[in-house]
Amino acid sequence: NQCRLWSFKVAPRGDGGYYEARDVHLFQSGIASVDVDEGPDGRFYVADFGGTWTKGDAGSVFALWWPDGLQRPAVGEARAILTGPDASTLPTDALLPLLGHADHRVRQRAQFALAARAGQDPAVVVALADLAATRSNLHALWALRQIGALESLRSLLTHDSAEVRAQSARALGDLRDGQSVPALLVMLESE
Q1: Using an 8 Å Cβ cutoff, are 43 and 69 in contact?
Q2: What pLDDT, on a 0 to 100 scale, did the predictor assign at position 30?
Q3: Counts for the chain of helices (H) and strands (E), in that order
Q4: pLDDT per residue as tens digits for the range 22-50
Q5: In the chain, how long is the greatest CA-to-CA distance?
């Protein structure tokens, strides 16, 4: 069996927003893994079709974990958030800090809940724009893209962070914002 799962960290290379894999090492081998997902309990779940690539009557789901890792406070905190109340029921002031959480699933859950309520609460748009601008929070920026907050996204085209500028440009392009074209052309010449 040649199936292997690798573990690695993704980090900026430092040359203008590109990324590289670091701390690459073999996490697991020997299971014909066809899918892997993270559970809210801190474990990885691996699906196996019984040693083949074709679906049949045989198969298994394996749970893999690092015992010491499950004891980390951040894992327990993420577990409590992911298995707790639906994010849409949490107040805005509880959701905004979650956009900076270490666990991407928590950040994304908060992002989608905030984007869903932004149409009814203009203060949410202001708070998202502030987070995107002052803390370079990409989930806040992506929520602005979800709700089509063009003015807020345009203001981020001159941000100090190359990543924030790039993500803003991408969002405005996705939204087909013709008013941003002159600023985007200037960016192309200077970046």
Answers
A1: no
A2: 80
A3: 9, 5
A4: 999 998 888 878 888 999 998 989 888 77
A5: 58
